[in-house]
Design goal:
The chain is of the alpha/beta class and about 475 residues long. It has three domains: about 90 residues, NAD(P)-binding Rossmann-like Domain (Rossmann fold), CATH 3.40.50.720; about 200 residues, UDP-N-acetylmuramoyl-L-alanine:D-glutamate ligase, CATH 3.40.1190.10; about 150 residues, Mur ligase, C-terminal domain (Protein-Tyrosine Phosphatase, Chain A, Alpha-Beta Complex), CATH 3.90.190.20. It contains 17 helices and 20 strands. The protein has a nine-stranded mixed sheet with strand order 7-8-6-9-10-11-12-13-14, sandwiched between helices. It has a six-stranded mixed sheet with strand order 15-16-20-17-18-19, sandwiched between helices. Strand 10, helix 10 and strand 11 form a beta-alpha-beta unit. Helix 5 crosses helix 11 and helix 5 crosses helix 12.
């Protein structure tokens, strides 16, 4: 299917990274572009200079749709937005930047290998890119990871594409030839409306598989994903699992990641970041690369050489026998559960924006591992209430402040609750925009606060302390299979 934009009126909503990149791409293709944003700024001014009509409006009027054939929305624009809903009702073609990039592909475009899921997307997409590079391919990780797909550099062979539920919801023709769904759990319900709509958006990564001209890949250990894969994955779906080695699936055998035919790829304890969820991510990356034709040797070399992304179960330091770990990317309960299950005794740093998601099941499941909790952020009271129900008597510190010193107070409180051998784990189970620009800034603040801690001075009658906890430069080692 080809799309012609020369002389076509298009409205672009939002001038963030994706919106501005979309507007520039449409201008290059001759579209008559109108850009609307709620406030003025350099991006709007640059687009106006490039030939776009710009509109600043706190509440964009639906009259902006008059004569428009296409509406390109920034990923954060929800289905219930007044302009987006009016456009859908009027039959305007509504989509986001990845769909636009798919429509603008030329004959020399690289192959897209796509993946989505509630958690693990960026880890998996960067693992996949590492594998593809190990195979000697010109590649990179793009999409929701930060680099707009409309701005791909020339000369790429194949790309690893991270796709969010927002982006997939606002797509209709995007059909990656191999797509993986990592997992599904409650998230972004305030945006989608309910879990069914959220899951349906995620399953769009299998659009090509459903149509019979692509490969659908899914997590057999996630009952919702496994059922969806069996129901709608199309011909020859590929599964991955850390529970064993079922026929036709990537799995684990004798401590090794293995292909469906049992060929050993790499030892599970060499996967970084550590943890069973990251072994699953590595298997998904292997499945996608294999669907493209990558050999087992490159799967091994790519995973062995992989450098983990920041703020994902990242060791920061050990002070007085207490290890500090930054998993700020755990922005929902499902993600937090993965890291919380990897350590035997934890002082939990949690809180932020829960996004309409219930925290109760997570707290119930990890209560036995908790030595204490320090809570921050707008929805911390909900976490405190769940802790009172499922971990009565647990020491809990509530940090109400939201200024630059908040994380310093949080880390000091956590250090006061922890004993040698414990892990202070930032796994917020919530988004960060109530206090920070993003999860990365939150993680940086945590790490910076940890680095201000000073070891307690030994008393004269204190004997050797090396055996009371991890050494000062030793990271905790969560088991690759998830056992404490």
């Amino acid at each position: 299917m080809s799309f012609e934009y020369d002389g076509v009126p298009v409205l672009v909503m939002g001038t963030g990274m994706a919106g501005a990149a979309s507007a520039r791409a449409l201008l290059r293709h001759g579209a008559h572009v109108t850009v609307v944003d709620r406030k003025d700024g350099p991006a709007l001014q640059e687009l106006a200079a490039a030939g776009a009509k710009v509109v600043v409006a706190a509440q964009p009027p639906t009259a902006l749709l008059d004569g428009v054939r296409h509406l390109v929305v920034s990923p954060g624009v929800p289905p219930h937005d007044a302009v987006a809903a009016a456009a859908v009702a009027d039959g305007v073609d509504v989509y986001s930047e990845p769909e636009l990039a798919w429509r603008l592909r030329g004959p020399d475009a690289p192959t897209w290998l796509g993946l989505t899921g509630t958690n693990g997307k960026t880890t998996t997409v960067t693992m996949l890119a590492s594998i593809l590079r190990a195979a000697g391919l010109k590649t990179g990780a793009f999409g929701n990871i930060g680099v707009p797909l409309v701005d791909l550099p020339a000369g790429l062979d194949v790309i690893a594409v991270e796709l969010s539920s927002f982006q997939l919801h606002w797509s209709s023709t995007l059909a990656v030839p191999a797509g993986a769904l990592l997992n599904l759990a409650d998230d972004h319900l305030e945006w989608h409306g309910d879990f069914a709509a959220y899951a349906s958006a995620k399953e769009a990564v299998w659009r090509a598989g459903r149509a019979g001209h692509g490969r659908s890949i899914g997590n057999l250990d996630d009952p919702i994903v496994a059922a969806a894969l069996a129901r709608a994955g199309g011909p020859d779906p590929i599964g991955f699992t850390v529970e064993g080695t079922p026929a036709g699936a990537f799995g684990l055998a004798d401590g090794w990641l293995v292909t469906p035919d049992g060929t050993q790829i790499i030892e599970a304890d060499r996967i970084r970041p550590a943890g069973v969820h990251n072994v699953a991510n590595a298997l998904a990356a292997c499945a996608l690369a294999t669907a493209y034709g990558v050999a087992v040797a490159s799967l091994r070399d790519g995973l062995a050489g992989y450098e983990p992304e920041p703020h994902r179960n990242a060791y920061v330091a050990t002070v007085d026998g207490v290890s500090y770990v930054d998993d700020s990317k755990a922005t929902n309960p499902h993600a937090a559960a993965a890291s919380l299950s990897a350590y035997p005794r934890i002082v939990w740093v949690a809180g932020g924006q829960l996004k309409g998601v219930d925290i109760d099941d997570l707290v119930r499941s990890v209560a036995g591992r908790l030595a204490g909790a320090v809570l921050l952020g707008v929805d911390r009271a909900q976490i405190a209430a769940a802790l009172a129900r499922h971990a009565p008597g647990l020491p809990v510190v509530d940090v109400a402040r939201t200024d630059d010193g908040a994380m310093g107070e949080v880390v000091a409180a956590a250090a006061g609750l922890a004993q040698p051998g414990d892990t202070v784990l930032l796994a917020p189970a919530a988004a960060s925009k109530d206090m920070y620009h993003g999860y990365d800034e939150r993680g940086d603040a945590f790490a910076a606060a940890v680095r201000t801690l000073r070891p307690a001075a030994p008393t004269e009658d204190t004997g050797p302390t090396a055996d009371t906890g991890p050494a000062a430069d030793t990271a905790p080692t969560p088991d690759a299979t998830g056992a404490p």
